[in-house]
Structures are given as C-alpha cells and as structure tokens.
Specification:
Blueprint: H1 5-19, H2 23-53, H3 57-65
Helix pairs in contact: 1-2
C-alpha cells in the first residue's frame, strides 16, 4: 500500500515523540498522532462510502487518478 500523507505525518510525529523528554510535549505529540488516526479513519470511511455510492467504474478511476480517492 502506498504511503499516504497522513501516515507520513504520523511517522514524523512518532520520531519527534521519541526524541523529546518533556512530558508536556510528549502529551501534545501523542494527541496530534491520535488526531491523525481519526483523520485516517474518516478518509477510509469516505472512500468506502464513495465506492458504495458511485457504481460507474470509469468515474471512480478518474477520481482515483486525480487523487481524490
């Protein structure tokens, strides 16, 4: 599976979290990573909804080619 922008952001935050010693900063980074997870789930849910709603494969392929899916 190709890496998404959100997964790359999470990877960068994970690295930053490992490099930080301040508990408040670790807390904020952990919360940011949780929000990235929420966005990933919403994105996946929207993809599923579109797949169920749009039955024309050509339209789906065009949307994927344009980066919307």
């Amino acid at each position: 599976m190709p890496e998404t922008t959100l997964s790359r952001i999470d990877e960068l935050l994970e690295g930053a979290q490992a490099d930080v010693d301040d508990p408040d900063t670790i807390y904020k980074i952990r919360n940011a990573r949780q929000l990235v997870g929420v966005l990933e789930q919403r994105h996946a849910d929207l993809d599923d909804a579109l797949d169920e709603t749009i039955t024309d494969e050509q339209v789906l392929n065009n949307l994927r080619d344009l980066g919307y899916l």
